[in-house]
Amino acid sequence: MADLRNGCTPNGDFREAVCIDAxxxxxxxxxxxxxxxxxxxxxxxTQALIDNALSVRLRSAEVLNVYIDVEPVxxxxxxxxxxxxxxxxxxxxxxxxxxxxxxxxxxxASFNKKVILFGSEGNVKTYSNVFGEECVCQSNPAVRSNxxxxxxxxxxxxxxxxxxxxxxxxxxxxxxxxxxSVCEAIGGNVVTDLRNGTPTIFATIGLFSIxxxxxxxxxxxxxxxxxxxxxxxxxxxxxxxxxxxxIQFPLDDFFPPRTYEEDCSPTCSCSDTDIDE
Length: 277
Description:
Elements: E1 16-39, H1 44-50, E2 55-72, E3 79-95, E4 103-118, E5 126-128, E6 143-145, E7 150-155, E8 159-167, H2 180-183, E9 199-223, H3 240-245, H4 251-254, H5 272-276
Antiparallel strand pairs: 1-9, 2-3, 3-4, 5-6, 7-9, 8-9
């Protein structure tokens, strides 16, 4: 086997091997959560509309933020518990009469999730001047990083499934501390101290997520060449109609494709005679 450190191989596929510091994914998982009957929180003026509402329909759902807390698992070295708190922005059509148009309102909901993943072990203390805070004593202080792996959560917009108006049975149920940065999405602080018997909205959404534990490590990789762009930048000076003429006709929007269990090519035959043979 050729030595990667000498910068050449018999066939000359790459130029050299370099050492890089990059994040390596040690463990990951994907999940599909059906979040049923999430209690929603609203502004005071919105809650007054809900008190007299007849029905509600869930329009859309969006992930506002995810708060992450990573702690080592004491009884299993190398594994970490990732506590995730999702905050959602939900939009509803609120009907206050049988004939009138619905009123669009926004609310906030939250969901807690815990996963345990492998993040390896490390005892090295790393110091860096990147993202350092200003210090009176030092012009360029070194910041020490902790030894915990980094948890990364990836999501797409949740799937809105259903919503219903229901009276609160337990005023402390599903009440959590909602950060001000999340409340700003609907324009102010939400009402959390509702009494039992007060109507509110419970929503059901579908959530797809991927959770990864990443740790920075030094890796030796082969380098083929620098990433030099092979095309020139184009200025957007075309006529609007010329730009529109280059867009492919959206056939799938007019004729939605069907779903097949098997992808048959145009040459395959599924006639009765073939089955008999």
